[in-house]
Amino acid sequence: MSRQGVDYSWARPGGATLKRAGKDFAVRYVPYPGHGGKGLDAAERDDLRNNGVDIAMVFESYAKRPLEGFGAGVADAQASEAALAALGMSGMPLYFAVDWDTTEAQQAAIDDYLRGAASVIGKDRVGVYGSYYVCKRCRDNGTAKLLWQTYAWSGGQVLDGIHLFQYKNGQDLNGAVDFTEARQDQFGQFGGKVSAPSTPAAPAPAVSASGTYTVRAGDNLSTIASRFGTTADTLAAINGIANKNLIFAGQVLRLSGATPAPAPVAGGRYTVVSGDNLSRIGEKFGVTADAIAAANGIANKNLIYAGQVLVIPGSGASPAPAAARSYTVASGDNLSGIAAKYGTTYQVLQAYNGIADANKIYPGQVIRIP
């Protein structure tokens, strides 16, 4: 007999209510900045677990977010990692929602989105929620290990080997819930027992916060801060990070205000960090935003991205030319896939090349790479 559970957003049926209704797991939303209260919090986590209700996790900000490709997957996985760490649920698998009636032509962007998530949390932790067709394509393309199928948009078909099946929407259990059943014993659930806090052991001495730290895949600002005896807010302030949930592998963080920033030298190169803009970078190097834009072939001065390497023109000299790179579109290519090869996003390539519709590129087309 399959295990019976629920998924819900703003309802809070409570663990006791779910157990009385014969439901022993709940799929809950990852809290992310601006989630509006639909995400799991610590109090609800404790209530569910103390009533014997297991928890699986799904990420969804808005329905068609996966169409934004690889970079969006990276950002959403990073935000999820930070949220799971704060909930004491690090390392859990995550279902990423594809919550609309997709077309086959949209699958390439969806796959890129899931690959972006996998680059942060690993392929084995990536799951997908969607129709029969989405689950089948993701399984066949190797972009999702866990499959949560909804009966919606599925034409009455149920895919073999799925982990979860959402079979009825709009039910009332002390609030609006959907009914979901588990088709496999392991479906990415968290089943740890929550107990009363015990007297904490003496903490290990913190490593002194000095020097710099290079971000690795899976890191978040809170775990880095605790490792060096500081706080996420402090690191964000020192490094000019506007969104504490958005850091990236390879980013170099200063660990204290006493750590000197690299001395800016005009005529060199600069790697963009989160929160940068061309005007701010120009002030560091004593050149104008227009000069930097010209040196790098940037058409829209508001479109730069973390990790982008910029040529900084020398003061009073002609702008140094950026190294020219290009890619010739082959059959089957899409802009998200090309962007992933070069460590950028499809939005940057679209703006840089003046492409009106990101879904319309053609074999033989030459894409300039910033």
Describe this structure in words.
With 370 residues, this protein is an alpha/beta fold. The chain folds into four domains: 180 residues, TIM Barrel (Alpha-Beta Barrel), CATH 3.20.20.80; 43 residues, LysM domain (Membrane-bound Lytic Murein Transglycosylase D, Chain A, Roll); 43 residues, LysM domain (Membrane-bound Lytic Murein Transglycosylase D, Chain A, Roll), CATH 3.10.350; 43 residues, Membrane-bound Lytic Murein Transglycosylase D, Chain A. Helix content is 28%, strand content 17%. It has eleven helices and 14 strands. An eight-stranded mixed β-barrel has the order 1-2-3-4-5-6-7-8.
Structural class: alpha/beta
Q: What's the pLDDT, averaged over the residues?
A: 82
Strand content: 15-25%
Radius of gyration from the CA trace?
Answer: 23 Å
Architecture (CATH level 2) name of the largest domain: Alpha-Beta Barrel
CATH class of the largest domain: Alpha Beta
In short, what is this structure?
The protein is α/β, with parallel strands linked by helices. The chain is 28% helix and 17% strand.
Give me the secondary-structure topology.
Elements: E1 3-7, H1 15-20, E2 25-29, H2 42-50, E3 54-59, H3 70-86, E4 94-97, H4 107-121, E5 126-130, H5 132-141, E6 146-150, E7 164-172, E8 176-182, E9 212-214, H6 221-227, H7 232-239, E10 252-254, E11 269-271, H8 278-285, H9 289-296, E12 309-311, E13 326-328, H10 335-341, H11 346-353, E14 366-368
Parallel strand pairs: 1-2, 2-3, 3-4, 4-5, 5-6, 6-7
Antiparallel strand pairs: 1-8, 7-8, 9-10, 11-12, 13-14
Helix pairs in contact: 3-4, 6-7, 8-9, 10-11
